[in-house]
């Protein structure tokens, strides 16, 4: 695949899916700005990219703080110049509880990270991309943003909101050479799904093994998605093969969601 852009800003780019996305884009010759909270994790990811022959830098990013978002974008521009690709990956799982037991603080925190943060990042780069008549915006939503998931109201609401943001960015950027797409992963192997399983085990009184079997059984492949699956889809959407793909919500779910 030929990826036109030269630079990418990846939120949550040093852990989990984000780390895999950073490594994947760097393997295609993209200079990656790893934007995340933990300095040591950012530095480790940059070192891994450089050890593999890629190019990367890092910056602190707190998506709950608008000033931090602005500062991170400006730092990235100082480090690598224009930003060709934005990957809004960072997110939190939020609480696992019935709506009546979700606190306002939990709701606000989840929406702040998962929806307001991507809005702020998109707002910070879209005008520049439109002026250059090139850009790729990839938002990591979730299969849970498309389907019914009891006791996950903040998370599912935020991920459904990402789909609306994606379509609007696609409509506004389309005439100017900017595409915007969302990826909707199913359950992805890693610490986040492990934490969700642990919470469900407490609230449902089921064993972890039962919960894992149920979640895998809801897919057509009877397996969880891997971070690599998501990262390779990001690369595809950034490539010339996807020049006419925009405003879409692509499922990477092993068939957990088929619409």
TrEMBL record:
GO terms for biological process: monocarboxylic acid metabolic process. PROSITE patterns: ADH_SHORT. The lineage of its organism: Archaea, Methanobacteriati, Methanobacteriota, Stenosarchaea group, Halobacteria. It comes from the Archaea. Belongs to the short-chain dehydrogenases/reductases (SDR) family. Pfam families: adh_short_C2 (PF13561). It comes from Natrialba magadii (strain ATCC 43099 / DSM 3394 / CCM 3739 / CIP 104546 / IAM 13178 / JCM 8861 / NBRC 102185 / NCIMB 2190 / MS3). GO terms for molecular function: oxidoreductase activity. Its EC number is 1.1.1.-. InterPro entries: NAD(P)-bd_dom_sf, Sc_DH/Rdtase_CS, SDR, SDR_fam. This is Oxidoreductase (Short-chain dehydrogenase family). Keywords: Oxidoreductase.
